[in-house]
């Protein structure tokens, strides 16, 4: 873990978790894979981008993804996000489509970078932080789930009035980690083309999230700010 890339506000948590056996196993596994010539996404420098861009005291919304994109130059450490210049993935296109009907004035951008959301307090967390090239979910069982579960528990315990947006059955399994008496959970099917028409479209998660934030005295997310 590149501690120099992690904001000081996350360092106590990540350093504490990093000493535990499951994290040591993750690091050993990744090193062995790299030494064997495997390609792993995202790069180590971007693996903790969600933490890097959204310190815990600024978290307003948590959007959970599953594992990083496994194609070249796609994964950038933020759930559902890709770098400028990379084709917008299908699930993100559907997210943009829902935004267009949910948030007045939203025009889908030509890129898929969600960095500006992260900077506003949207914690875009994948439940696995790495993946082998061209092998979806290949690192789903190496220990990342424990780190991301502990991250959700940390936010649940230490933050107030956070909106957790859980798309699909994988993300909704994390609902048990969230105290819904102090936070808001918005759940629906996944925005994937395989399921979006079964309840994602029309679910209005973005306006619902902002309504909750405003109700609790927080500045809403400018979902259209994706320059």
Automatic annotation (TrEMBL):
Cleaved signal peptide residues: none
Localization of this protein: Cytoplasm
SUPFAM superfamilies per UniProt: Uracil-DNA glycosylase-like
GO biological process, one term: base-excision repair, AP site formation via deaminated base removal
SMART domains for the chain: UDG (SM00986), UreE_C (SM00987)
Entry annotated with the keyword Transferase: no
Reactions the enzyme catalyzes: Hydrolyzes single-stranded DNA or mismatched double-stranded DNA and polynucleotides, releasing free uracil
Keyword annotations from UniProtKB, A to Z: Cytoplasm, DNA damage, DNA repair, Hydrolase
GO cellular component term of the entry, any: cytoplasm
Molecular function via GO: uracil DNA N-glycosylase activity
Active site: 67 (proton acceptor)
Start and end residues of each Uracil-DNA glycosylase-like domain: 52-213
Gene3D superfamilies: Uracil-DNA glycosylase-like domain
Key word Plastid present: no
PROSITE patterns reported for this sequence: U_DNA_GLYCOSYLASE
EC number: 3.2.2.27
CDD domains: UDG-F1-like
Purpose: Excises uracil residues from the DNA which can arise as a result of misincorporation of dUMP residues by DNA polymerase or due to deamination of cytosine.
PANTHER family: URACIL-DNA GLYCOSYLASE
Similarity remark: Belongs to the uracil-DNA glycosylase (UDG) superfamily. UNG family.
Protein name per the record: Uracil-DNA glycosylase
Natural source organism: Wohlfahrtiimonas chitiniclastica SH04
